[in-house]
Design brief:
The protein contains three helices and eleven strands; from the N terminus they run ααβββαββββββββ. The protein is α+β, with helices and mostly antiparallel strands. A hairpin with a 2-residue loop joins strand 2 and strand 3. It folds into two domains: about 35 residues; about 150 residues, Jelly Rolls (Sandwich), CATH 2.60.120. About 25% of the residues lie in helices and about 40% in strands. A six-stranded antiparallel beta sheet has the order 2-3-5-10-7-8, with no helix packed on it.
């Protein structure tokens, strides 16, 4: 009778030694359930937030002011042939369009639908691209980004202006700004110019005005 007793003892010992591993696994599963995402039930707002409001739009350049800008670049022009005004509310026309790249297609577009402006910030690769079609080569084209620079304390607004043979960096003072450039096309077709803030300060964009001189 002693031998069967010995066999049972060995089986019981094996069962006992296998339990700690099972307990360890259960303990790990319990720990996993304790690290869930916290939930705030019936939460209430901590602050009141109103819709972002853009400052008043800069004054549009007059026809004489646009002519003076082009003539100051030693270009002989007699007057304005045609003009195109593109805005966040009306970004497309038969001869031109505004497009947005980077993250500028998110919240700013929603604001543009109701408020007529676009807010660009330079800390997330936001930018504005103005595209236009040239029908008459050799006529100078004045591109004017109508913006208001909004700088952070201790910072100016640094921008990059590039496209269709232009590439430069500028520093803007806070307030109303007309970021302008002149393109003299050799052939007909589509041309573009884009504006990109480079630092964390931002730009309120109200319009891009494209003026063809003759």
């Amino acid at each position: 009778m002693a031998r069967p007793t010995i066999r049972l003892s060995i089986l019981l010992l094996a069962a006992i030694t296998s339990q700690p591993a099972a307990l360890t696994a259960q303990r790990s599963a319990s720990d996993a359930t304790d690290s869930r995402i916290p939930i705030a039930r019936n939460a209430t707002p901590t602050t009141e937030r109103s819709d972002v409001r853009a400052p008043s739009a800069p004054t549009r350049l007059s026809a004489d002011e646009r002519l003076t800008l082009v003539r100051s670049a030693d270009l002989d022009v007699g007057g304005i042939s045609s003009e195109l005004r593109l805005t966040p509310r009306a970004p497309f026309d038969a001869n031109g369009s505004i497009s947005f790249f980077g993250q500028a297609t998110l919240l700013p577009m929603q604001a543009a639908e109701t408020s007529g402006y676009l807010l660009l910030k330079g800390d997330a690769e936001w930018g504005l691209k103005a595209e236009f079609r040239v029908l008459h080569p050799d006529r100078p084209v004045l591109v004017d980004f109508v913006v208001k620079a909004a700088s952070l304390p201790g910072e100016g607004v640094t921008i990059r202006l590039a496209g269709s043979g232009i590439s430069e960096q500028r520093s803007l003072q806070p307030g109303d700004q007309h970021v302008t450039a002149i393109i003299v096309p050799k052939t007909h077709g589509w041309y573009y110019l884009y504006l990109e803030p480079l630092n964390k300060s931002g730009l309120w964009v109200y319009a891009v005005e494209i003026t063809v001189l003759e």
